[in-house]
Design brief:
By secondary structure, the protein is an alpha/beta fold. Helices cover 44% and strands 12% of the residues. It has a 7-stranded parallel β-sheet, sandwiched between helices.
């Protein structure tokens, strides 16, 4: 069921970049931004996915597809420049793109480690850097949001590299408080817990497992995460910066592991 978070056009006239938005959480954030009146520059590494997503979002508002590798600095510069050139400015940047490569710590290969860091950390860091230059040039501030994860707060089996990258994003947001507050730019992170998306739904037991493990009785929906995202990049959150909003139905308060299902009964 589709849910519209904002009935008014509270973001009218603003431009937002969202990476990793061809489906799932990123897509729903884009849809809600468009419904709120923003012009959305939607990025995904898969061209067909980006184009199809943009077509769907245009039913709600303005959306420009910009496919490409959001971990590549040359593309990041093109993405930011295109958003500025085609819409006349930039107001919101949401670094949502990321990859998860599971693996046992003792056997985790270097190529997997460096790929996770390149996408999750490098892509976010340099998108923030390029966007900040535009915000400063414009002189009217802006909002940045990074997508972290509950695995940046609680250890999760076979996700040492991923969890490390997500915790680092939260520290980046804190550091950018020092760097960007003088220019009126606020920077926050949203940390989703288990979320039912196209990808996770493909795992037949995902919803049942995480419904049992989550105190609120179900995994998050993309709209749950989008609601937090829209708040943090909206005018109501202009005095909030360097913070992380965890959206996990209470899971991180108790942290039962999917690898220890009996813990749910205790």
């Amino acid at each position: 069921m589709k849910v519209d978070l904002l009935t008014s056009k509270g973001l009218a006239g603003k431009t937002a970049i969202v990476t990793g938005a061809g489906q799932g959480i990123g897509f729903e954030i884009c849809r809600q931004l468009a419904l709120a009146g923003a012009t959305v520059v939607l990025n995904d590494i898969e061209e067909s996915l980006a184009e199809e997503a943009a077509v769907r979002i245009r039913e709600a508002g303005n959306c420009i597809a910009c496919p490409g590798d959001s971990s590549d600095l040359a593309f990041i510069r093109q993405l930011v420049a295109r958003a500025e050139a085609e819409t006349g400015g930039l107001d919101i940047v949401i670094a949502n793109a990321g990859i998860t490569l599971f693996g046992d710590f003792l056997a985790y290969p270097p190529e997997s480690f460096f790929k996770v860091m390149e996408v999750n950390l490098g892509g976010t860091f340099f998108l923030a850097q390029e966007s900040a230059k535009v915000f400063i040039k414009q002189g009217r501030g802006g909002s940045m949001l990074f997508t972290s994860s509950v695995t940046g707060h609680q250890a999760h089996k076979n996700l040492a590299a991923y969890g490390m990258s997500k915790a680092a994003l939260e520290m980046l947001a804190k550091h950018l408080v020092l760097e960007l507050s003088p220019y009126g730019v606020n920077v926050n992170t949203v940390a989703p817990g288990a979320t039912l998306t196209e990808r996770t739904a493909a795992d037949g037991g995902y919803e049942a497992t995480w419904s049992a493990l989550t105190p609120m009785g179900r995994p998050a929906t993309p709209t749950d995460i989008a609601a937090a995202a829209l708040f943090l990049v909206g005018d109501s959150a202009r005095h909030i910066t360097g913070q992380t909003l965890v959206v996990d139905g209470g899971w991180s308060a108790v942290s039962p592991s999917p690898y220890e299902p009996e813990s749910v009964k205790q």
